[in-house]
Design brief:
By secondary structure, the chain is an alpha/beta fold. The chain contains 17 helices and 25 strands. 32% of the residues lie in helices and 25% in strands. The chain is globular, with a radius of gyration of 25 Å.
């Protein structure tokens, strides 16, 4: 097996004509992280000159698979054959030199550098140790013109571009190398209809030259337009491959994608604490909009109720929560708690009104990683522990200890730095913070991301207990089964709009998938 990471010389580019056979083959690929199996046997084949679409629910293993292809991860088992020869790419640069380029959904651009500097970052055009700025800018113009975006100037700062413009720059960076296989992860998530059509034009031009495309998307209508074949992943395993993109029925794809091997144990609702529909809402959102992200969102949550937002990554779910919380300033619409309208874009006002947010990126946005457990719990309630400008540290720690014990946070040492704890216990610390604050409305964004199966059940129980105590809960999750299992009522969000609302008992996983992918009620 050739290790393509042991030489600084780029391998010869042996371009294969369209339809000449397998360019890439992956067989029995396995990948584990701390005893959690992310991939349990993936088989995948891509032919030169085709667009091969990779589909599956969030958590199916798509991201792990493409990170193995791009050599961000090394497989624990299985084989990769590239251009007919066994290969094991030692690092991402080796994969790029071999002709494999990946454009991730979360773009890795440098905002403070120019377009041209980003395109050639890491393989600058130079002579005698000096950068050739003129040649770099000219080559960047040529690549941008090939992508149909001559209007993007090579000297513009990337940070000044729209999300769509930044994606074009990311594609240009990929095409600045000799590419045989281009992997696109949810490339249309930030594009409007016209930009998607231009993306398809570029893809068709590349495949006509023999370049293979791996296209990852939840949007089945796009797959029908641009795809040749489809592979479906579920629970880290290939469940179908080589399906014709134009003719495979949507229902068949959804059936292949639906269902999980992980058992979710959801607590039963306390019927005595069930929300009373006759009571006034705790949280009321009316016609909320954020330009270019979402619009026309209406949401009502009563005491004791859990409302779930289901939708794809990029559909606007997270932004809706952040706007309700005041972390984003709404363009229009209102947010009210207990009948009182809140000022837009003011987190302090939202917190004083009783709103708490457990963000998706809890490590970067929700926790002080190098601070103690007790400090993380009390950070939103410090005023209640202050006297004459001094913090009553003993009382602060006593309250934190109380919550750590009641939520079974492990280990129970309140002076321990949060960074050293597991994902599930970190999430409990975030929940403890809002319990201490006594919030009326709790917004949960991906509450079990990075949490093991056992801790999931504990978090589900905590959320249900909070609701039964009278808290109004809004939960966002990429896992449809989690939304349906936790929520009393579900709103389906697609491309920034609520397209359906139903009691959780009256909608199933297949119907939700159909709604988020096709946008029409099942």
């Amino acid at each position: 097996m050739a290790d393509l990471g042991q030489t600084d010389e780029a391998p010869a580019q042996s371009r294969l004509p369209a339809g000449s056979g397998a360019l890439l083959q992956m067989s029995g690929i396995v990948k584990e992280f701390s005893s959690v199996r992310a991939l349990g046997g993936v088989d995948f084949e891509v032919r030169a000159g085709e667009t091969h679409c990779l589909v599956g629910q969030n958590g199916a293993g798509k991201s792990t698979m493409i990170k193995i292809l791009s050599a961000s991860y090394l497989p624990d088992a299985g084989t990769i054959t590239w251009k007919g020869d066994p290969a094991r790419f030692a690092h991402p640069l080796a994969a790029i030199k071999a002709g494999i380029a990946t454009i991730y959904q979360e773009l890795d651009l440098v905002p403070g550098l120019t377009v041209a500097e980003n395109i050639f970052l890491g393989h600058e055009i130079s002579a005698g140790g000096f950068s050739r700025r003129g040649a770099t800018n000219q080559r960047a113009r040529e690549i941008l013109a090939r992508l149909g975006h001559s209007e993007i100037g090579p000297t513009r700062l990337v940070g000044e571009l729209s999300p769509a413009g930044q994606q074009v720059v990311s594609m240009a960076r990929a095409l600045s190398h000799e590419v045989d296989l281009l992997i696109l992860d949810e490339p249309s998530a930030v594009l409007d209809h016209g930009e998607v059509e231009n993306l398809f034009r570029v893809i068709r031009g590349l495949t006509a030259q023999g370049v293979a495309i791996v296209y990852i998307s939840h949007r089945l209508e796009e797959i029908r337009q641009i795809g040749d074949r489809i592979t479906v992943l579920k629970d880290g395993v290939t469940v179908a491959t080589g399906l014709p993109a134009k003719t495979t029925p949507t229902g068949d794809l959804i059936k292949l994608m639906t269902g999980r091997s992980i058992e979710y144990v959801f607590p039963q609702r306390d019927q005595e604490a069930a929300p009373d529909a006759s009571r006034d809402p705790v949280l009321q959102v009316r016609d909320l909009a954020l330009d270019g992200v979402f619009s026309g969102v209406d949401l009502t949550v009563r005491a004791g109720e859990i409302v779930g937002l289901a939708g794809l990554v990029g559909s606007g779910r997270t932004e809706i929560l952040e706007t309700i919380y005041g972390a984003r300033r709404a363009t229009s619409g209102t947010v009210s708690v207990d009948g009182r309208k809140l000022r837009r874009g003011a987190v302090d006002v939202a917190v004083r009104a009783g709103i708490g947010l457990a963000p998706e990126e809890r490590k970067s946005q929700g926790l002080l990683l190098d601070q103690a457990v007790y400090a993380n719990i009390s950070v939103s309630s410090l005023k209640s522990f202050q006297r004459a400008g001094f913090v009553l540290r003993g009382r602060e720690k006593a309250k934190a200890r109380e919550l750590v014990e009641s939520l079974d946070v492990r280990p129970r040492t309140i002076s321990r730095h949060v960074r050293t704890m597991s994902g599930g216990n970190q999430q409990k610390v975030v929940l403890a913070r809002w319990l201490l604050r006594g919030c009326r409305v709790l917004l949960l964004d991906e509450p079990t991301r990075g949490v093991d199966v056992g801790a999931r059940s504990e978090i589900y129980r905590l959320v249900r207990t909070l609701a039964d105590s009278g808290v109004a809960v809004v939960v966002v999750s990429s896992e449809v089964e989690e939304v349906l299992g936790l929520a009393d009522r579900v709103l389906v969000v697609r491309e920034g709009r609520v397209v359906h609302e139903a009691a959780a008992a009256h909608i199933d996983e297949s119907q939700v998938l159909d709604l988020v992918m096709e946008g029409t009620p099942a």
